[in-house]
Each structure stands twice: as structure tokens, then as C-alpha cells.
Amino acid sequence: MELRKLLKNIKPVAIKGNEDIDVTGVNINSRLIGKGNLFIAMKGTQVDGHRFIGGAVEAGAVAVMCEELPSELDGGVTYVQVESTEDAAGKVATVFYGEPSKKLKLVGVTGTNGKTTIATLLYNMFTKLGYKCGLLSTVCNYIVDEKVPADHTTPDPIELNALLARMVEAGCEYAFMECSSHAIAQKRIGGLHFAGGVFTNLTRDHLDYHKTFENYRNAKKAFFDGLPKTAFAITNADDKNGMVMVQNTKAVVKTYSTRSMADFKGRLLECHFEGMYLEIDGREVGVQFIGKFNLSNLLAVYGAAVMLGQKPEDVLLVLSTLHSVNGRLEPIHSPEGFTAIVDYAHTPDALKNVLGAIHEVLDGRGHLITVCGAGGNRDKGKRPLMAQEAVAQSDKVIITSDNPRFEEPQDIINDMLAGLNAQQMKKVISIADRREAIRTACMMAGKGDVVLIAGKGHEDYQEIKGVKHHFDDHEVVRDFIGTEERKS
Ligand SMILES: CC(=O)N[C@H]1[C@@H](OP(=O)(O)OP(=O)(O)OC[C@H]2O[C@@H](n3ccc(=O)[nH]c3=O)[C@H](O)[C@@H]2O)O[C@H](CO)[C@@H](O)[C@@H]1O[C@H](C)C(=O)N[C@@H](C)C(=O)N[C@H](CCC(=O)O)C(=O)O
Ligand SMILES: Nc1ncnc2c1ncn2[C@@H]1O[C@H](COP(=O)(O)OP(=O)(O)OP(=O)(O)O)[C@@H](O)[C@H]1O
Ligand SMILES: N[C@H](CCC[C@H](N)C(=O)O)C(=O)O
Ligand SMILES: [Mg+2]
User: Fold this and answer.
1) Alpha carbon of 161 to those of 90, 158, 251: distances in Å?
2) Which of 48, 71, 144, 433 has the fewest beta carbons under 10 Å from its own?
3) Which ligand approaches the C-alpha of residue 115 most closely?
4) How many CA atoms lie within 13 A of 227 on its CB side?
């Protein structure tokens, strides 16, 4: 594509060199630059991408986009100076890939918890309704039924637009994606055209990155501020920040609620370990999910599907056939009669909710044993709070390792234990080896009890000092209790 065309949505501060050159690719990473590419130099949290301009040119870049021009310019290269490369990257990437989001109905889901659940269920639902769909999520990306492994909840702007373009090429009509707060703040979704946005909820997470809760909230809100007036914005009226999110949006606002008047209203009628019986907009429906928060998630899915033009009765029919997303409140029943539940709760609020959801079903009839840890090189402030939440609603807690990354597992465990007083400590043991922790919990469980294994959900690795070792909570449980994997 001609460089001049590529720049159509941005206002450069200066251009040095020829704009009428052909650009064969765009990247923000010099290590991925090939012959004829445009390299966009971004100031990151670790290094300044401007350092790699020389390397990118050596690797074949014919154009460079940057905030500061290098002191020596290469005669064969066109330099495009912009105020913010972070802002420009998404806009340029989307033009390069043929503005794929305009050729799809793209729905973004944001909020602290529930993004993967909602985006995946929308993808599953629209696939069952007979449409070709794409999915960008923490667990895995899909182009129709082709799996593309995901490194991030939201890919960088280049990969993101490349994936959307592949969805268009594969004939997809819909795409559903998670928008993480990091991605919104870093403008990874810049230049995308959304048909709709969904807000789940907002509680503490990622304060290591955003510093204050207000910054974190504003990052999420920026997604709704940027929606066009042709889009819908579905928000959770039960969350205290639900209406704040859509305060300044141009999109058509719709609400969902399990408690008060809303555009999409739901009520829990009954729950068991096999599922719940719900009333949604006056119709009764049985679903294969547990936990009141899943009622909220399902209302968001229902609302988005209706806003995308589906008939409520068709949506509810499909909703009743969907089942839990990998590692999200996923039950594994043991022959001895206890239930292990693998869940991705890795924030204090998610732990509180997941434990609450289990109690709704246990209803005082069995014990609850929780295995949990916290990730290394992530928000330290949440560690003691997670331990407190686990203790508050469990009969026994085994504190263990999650992904220690570059930290010492025992240091993370100690940070968690520091949140507990002597009384609370009576319920707690710590076993740094996660496999041993899970086995011990299963050994302690009797008929009717529940073992919650929280924090890693779908992850099939444990990241220790930069190396991902194979580790799968489901597998450890199944090895111990001797049952087979779920088929679909
Ligand atoms: C803190 C954070 O979000 N970092 C992301 C950010 O990296 P960064 O700005 O720190 O990049 P950097 O390493 O300083 O490099 C700066 C620039 O120089 C470039 N570079 C670097 C080295 C080189 O040799 N050549 C080169 O060109 C890099 O490509 C980059 O463009 O931009 C990169 C490209 O988009 C991301 O890969 C990277 O994600 C890191 C790996 C990460 O762990 N991010 C996590 C925290 C994250 O984003 N998580 C959220 C989900 C959280 C949730 O579940 O809610 C996500 O969306 O997954
Ligand atoms: N609506 C909800 N409210 C509160 N907790 C929830 C909700 N939905 C899911 N959870 C809990 O949060 C965990 C993560 O859910 P999910 O993966 O859907 O969220 P996410 O927003 O994609 O998370 P991430 O930011 O890590 O990608 C689940 O395992 C569950 O314990
Ligand atoms: N997307 C989240 C996932 C955390 C999952 C947990 N298992 C951990 O490793 O901390 C993050 O990167 O902060
Ligand atoms: Mg997710």
C-alpha cells in the first residue's frame, strides 16, 4: 500500500522523504520488520522503541514513524513524525489491513471480570445461530473454527488488525473481543469500528499499571467514550460504575440488571450444581451455568444478541444449550462424591463472587476447601485481600503458588498470609507446590464437599523465571480422581 494512503487518518507533524512509496507491512516491533515495511517506534514501559529505528532500517524498513526524528536520516527512508506513535499505530494498522472492523460487526467487552465468559459465549451463540464468527480472548483466538493461540487478552494493534482481516477473509460476519484496560490505555484498539460495547463490572485490579482506581476506571470508560453513535453500549446497572461508563458515550445505551428496572432484566429462580433456572425478560429458561454473576454475564450476552438483531426467543433457546467456558466455574465431579471446581478467579472480587456462587448451591450442606495463590510481578496489593476473601467463605484454605514469574513463590505466599490474623490462620495451610496443594485438598474432601481451585482456570502452564512449564489444574485433579476429560 502507498505510504500516503496509509497516513489518511493521522496528522503528521512532519514528513521527511517520499510519501509515494509502497509499504509492504507495518510493525511496532523491529524484530518483526521485513523488506519494504513501515516501522512504528513506540515508547514502551521497558524500552524506548526509538532505539531500534536503525535496526529496523537495516532489516529493510523503507519508512519510519516516530515522535522524535533520529539525528541522522537515511536518504532511502521516509520519516513520518507524529505527536504520539501510540495513538497513530492502531489507526495506521487498521488502514493497512483494509479497515477489517468496518466489514464485520465487532463487539468489544470490557470490565474487570466476565470479559472472557461473555465474549466466548457470544461467539458460541452466534456460531450456533449459523453465522461465521471470530473471537479474540484471553484463552484463545478463533477465526471461525481455526484456533490461533493468544498471548494477551487483547493483542497489539498490528496482530489485532491482522487477525480481524483474516476473519473478514474467512467470511466472518461477527467478531467478539475482550478489551483489557491495558489495551484501551495503550490504544491497541485505536481506529477500530465497533458495532457495540459491553461493560461487565469494575473492582480492583492492575493497580500496578494504572496506579489509581480512578485511572483504571477512566481507561475502561475511554472505550465507551470512543464508540460511534451507530453502536450500542450495554452496561451493568447493578455495578456502581455501570452508568459512569456510559456517561459520555455517543452510542445507544441499554442496561441490564438482576435487581432493578432495566432494558434486559433477569432473575434467579433456582440453582443446582448442574445449572440454574432463570427468568429473563419474563421468559423462563434453564441454563448450564452456576453462580449469580453468571446470570449477569448471561444477561449481557442476551442483551448484546438482541441488540445485534436476534429474536429474544431464539437467543434464549441457544442460551440453554451453552456450557461453562474453559476454566470458568468448571465443575469436575469425583467418583467419591465431591466436586472440584476449576476457576480463573485471580482478583479479590472474583474470589468473593465465585465462593458466593458455590455457597448458593452448597446451601450449608458440604464443606468448601479453597486452593489459591497470586501471580508474581503483578499487583501486590491484591494478595492479602485475596487471602482474606478466601478465608471468609471457606472451611479450609490452602495457599499455594500461581505463576510466580520472576518472584519467589514463598514471598508471594507470605504477602498473602500477611493479610490474615491468628484466628483466620487456623483455617489456613500453605503448600508452595501447586500440584501437592491440589492433591491435598482433594484428599481432604468428602462426599458433598467442594474443592475450589482458583486463579489459573484455562492456563496450561506455570510460568517460573521466564519459562512456561506445562501445568493444568484440570489435569492434576483428573489424575488424582481418575476421571476423563469433558468432550466438547
Ligand atoms: C505493561 C504492558 O502492557 N506492556 C505491553 C506493551 O509493552 P511495552 O510498551 O512495555 O513494550 P517495551 O518492551 O517497553 O517496548 C517498547 C517498544 O519497543 C519495541 N521493541 C522492543 C525491543 C526490540 O528489540 N525492538 C522493538 O522494536 C516493542 O515492540 C515496543 O513497541 O506493549 C507490548 C506490545 O503491545 C505488549 O506486548 C506488552 O505486554 C506485556 C508483555 C504484558 O505483559 N502485558 C500485560 C500486563 C497485559 O497487557 N495484560 C492485559 C490483560 C490483563 C487482564 O487480563 O485484564 C492484556 O491485554 O493481555
Ligand atoms: N460477572 C462477573 N462478576 C464477578 N466475577 C466474575 C464475573 N464473571 C466471571 N467472574 C469471575 O472472574 C473470573 C474470570 O472470568 P473471565 O475470565 O470471564 O473474566 P475476564 O474479565 O476475561 O478476566 P481477565 O481480565 O483475566 O481476562 C471467573 O473465573 C470467575 O471467577
Ligand atoms: N491477565 C491476567 C491474568 C492473571 C492470571 C493469574 N494466573 C496470574 O498469573 O497472575 C494478568 O496477566 O494479570
Ligand atoms: Mg479475559
Assistant:
1) 8, 5, 23
2) 71
3) 2
4) 31
Asked whether the predicted pLDDT for residue 11 surpasses 70, the reply is yes
Q: Are 106 and 194 in contact (CB under 8 A)?
A: yes
* 3 state SS of 47: coil
- List, as residue ranges, the binding site for ATP: 111-117
Residues 6+ apart with CB under 8 A from 384: 415, 416, 418, 419, 420
Percent with pLDDT over 70 in the chain = 98
ipTM for the predicted complex? 0.92
3-state DSSP helix/strand/coil % of the chain, to nearest 5: 35, 25, 40
Q: Decide whether any atom of ligand 1 lies within 6 Å of the 180 Cβ.
A: yes
User: Could you tell me which of 450, 362, 463 has the C-alpha nearest to residue 477?
Assistant: 450
346 in contact with ligand 3, CB cutoff 6 A: yes
Cβ(375) to ligand 3 under 6 A?
Answer: yes
Q: Which atom of ligand 3 is nearest to the CA of 376?
A: 10
Tens of pLDDT, residue by residue over 359-372, are 988 989 999 999 99
Spatial distance between the Cα atoms of 60 and 79, rounded to a whole number of angstroms: 14
The pocket of ion ligand 4, defined by CB under 5 A, consists of 115-116, 138, 153, 178
CA distances from 157 to 137, 176, 186, 456 (A): 14, 16, 9, 26
Q: Which residue minimizes the CA distance to atom 13 of ligand 3?
A: 378
Angle ∠(428,434,440) on CA atoms, nearest 5:
55
Question: What pairs with residue 2 in β-bridges?
Answer: 22
Residue 220 alpha carbon to ligand 4 centre in Å: 14
Confidence of residue 105 (pLDDT cuts 50, 70, 90): very high
Strands (E) across 272-417 are located at 276-280, 283-287, 330-333, 339-343, 368-372, 396-399
pLDDT mean over 280-301: 94
User: Mean pLDDT across the stretch 437-449?
Assistant: 96
Identify which of 109, 112, 113 to mutate to test ligand 2's pocket (most ligand atoms within 8 A of the CB): 113
Q: What number is the average pLDDT over the span 243-263?
A: 97
Q: Is the CB of 85 under 6 A from ligand 1?
A: no
Write the residue with the smallest CA distance to atom 3 of ligand 3.
346
E strand or H helix at 270: strand 264-271
Count of CB atoms situated within 10 Å of the CB of 171 = 10
* Residue with CA closest to ligand 2 atom 29: 344
pLDDT of residue 484: 61
Looking at ligand 1, which residue's alpha carbon is closest to its atom 34? 156
Residue 86: strand, helix, or coil: helix
- Atom nearest to 205 CA in ligand 3: 13
SS3 category, 425: helix
